[in-house]
Automatic annotation (TrEMBL), chain B:
It comes from uncultured Propionibacteriaceae bacterium. Residues 7-128 form the FAS1-like dehydratase domain. This is (3R)-hydroxyacyl-ACP dehydratase subunit HadA. InterPro entries: FAS1-like_DH_region, HadA-like, HotDog_dom_sf.
Length: 143, 141
C-alpha cells in the first residue's frame, strides 16, 4: 500500500492519468456485475428509440473508472470518504473491437488537514463526459 | 398519478438483506477492470462504487411505485454522490432504504433528488448514496 501523506500533496498536485477502453463486451460484463440491465447499454434499437446515437456506457462504469485514478494513487480504497460526479454526456460505445476510449486526469483541488479533495476530468470523443467529478480522501495516519 | 413536489419526504421500506461476498466483489472489480489488491484475497473490501449493487434495488422500489408513474425509459441518472463511513467488506449484511428528498418541475421534466442509506442489519450506517434523476414527461400525443 502507498505511504502517501498530506506532506506529499498540495493544491495542483497532478495524479497519474489513466486511459480505458470500453467495448460492448465490457458493458455486458458491467451490466451483470452491477445488475443494471437498462437496454440502452446493449441494444442499438432501444438506444435509438430514446434518442441516443448508439449504445452508451453505464454512467456508473465511467464513474468507477474515474475513481481508479484516485485509488491507484492513494493505494488503499478505504481512504475514499466521498465521491461525486455529474453524468453530463454519454460515452458512446460502437460495436467494434476497440470500443470507446475514455481519458481520465486528476489533480488535487483542496487540502484541509488530512482531507484531500481531487478533481477528476473524464473525456471521450473530445467531450467531457463527467461534470464536477471529485473525490475526497483521508490521508491521516492509519491505526 | 404522476410524481409531484408533494412526494418529497416519501421513503420506502429497507431492501431485503444483501450479503456482500468475496465472489461478487471479484466479479465487480473485474467488470470495472480494477486490479487493486484490496479487492482480492479471502477478505476483500468492495470497490467504493460497488454500493450501486445495493442501492439499485432501492431505486427500483421508487421506479416501481405506482403513485409516481415513472417510466424507466424516460429516466436519466443525472448525478451521483457517495458519502462513506467505511468500505463494504466481505460478510457485511446490508439493507438499503431510499428517501425522496426533493422533487422539482423544470420544463418538460421532473428533477428527483433521492438518497439511499446503506446500513448493516445491526444498524451501522456504511454509506449514503445520493442520486439525482431526471424524469421527462410523456410527449403530448
Amino acid at each position: 500500500m502507498s505511504g502517501l501523506t498530506t506532506a506529499d500533496v498540495e493544491v495542483g498536485t497532478q495524479l497519474p492519468p489513466l486511459t480505458v477502453h470500453l467495448t460492448r463486451a465490457d458493458l455486458v460484463r458491467y451490466a451483470g456485475a452491477s445488475t443494471d440491465f437498462n437496454p440502452i447499454h446493449y441494444s442499438e434499437r432501444f438506444a435509438a428509440q430514446v434518442g441516443l446515437p448508439d449504445v452508451v456506457a453505464h454512467g456508473m462504469l465511467t464513474m468507477a473508472g474515474a475513481l481508479r485514478v484516485v485509488t491507484d494513487w492513494v493505494g488503499d480504497p478505504a481512504r475514499v470518504t466521498s465521491y461525486f460526479a455529474r453524468f453530463t454526456r454519454p460515452v458512446v460505445v460502437p460495436d467494434d473491437d476497440t470500443g470507446a476510449e475514455v481519458r481520465f486526469s486528476a489533480a488535487v483541488t483542496a487540502v484541509d488537514g488530512d482531507l484531500v479533495t481531487i478533481g477528476i476530468d473524464a473525456v471521450s470523443a473530445a467531450v467531457k463526459v463527467l461534470g464536477a467529478a471529485r473525490a475526497e480522501v483521508d490521508l491521516g495516519p492509519r491505526g | 398519478m404522476a410524481i409531484t413536489e408533494a412526494h418529497a419526504g416519501r421513503s420506502y421500506p429497507p431492501t431485503a438483506p444483501y450479503v456482500v461476498s468475496a465472489a461478487k466483489i471479484a466479479e465487480f472489480a473485474a467488470a470495472i477492470k480494477d486490479l487493486n489488491p484490496a479487492y482480492a484475497g479471502p477478505e476483500p473490501i468492495a470497490p467504493p462504487t460497488f454500493v450501486v449493487v445495493i442501492s439499485s434495488a432501492a431505486w427500483q422500489a421508487m421506479f416501481d411505485d405506482p403513485d409516481l408513474d415513472l417510466a424507466l425509459r424516460r429516466v436519466v441518472h443525472a448525478d451521483q454522490r457517495f458519502d462513506y463511513r467505511r468500505p463494504l467488506r466481505t460478510g457485511d449484511t446490508v439493507t438499503a432504504r431510499l428517501t425522496i428528498n426533493k422533487v422539482r418541475a423544470r420544463g418538460a421534466a421532473d428533477i428527483i433528488s433521492s438518497s439511499v442509506e446503506v446500513e448493516t442489519v445491526a444498524g451501522e450506517l456504511v454509506c449514503t448514496a445520493s442520486a439525482t434523476f431526471l424524469h421527462s414527461h410523456e410527449p403530448a400525443a
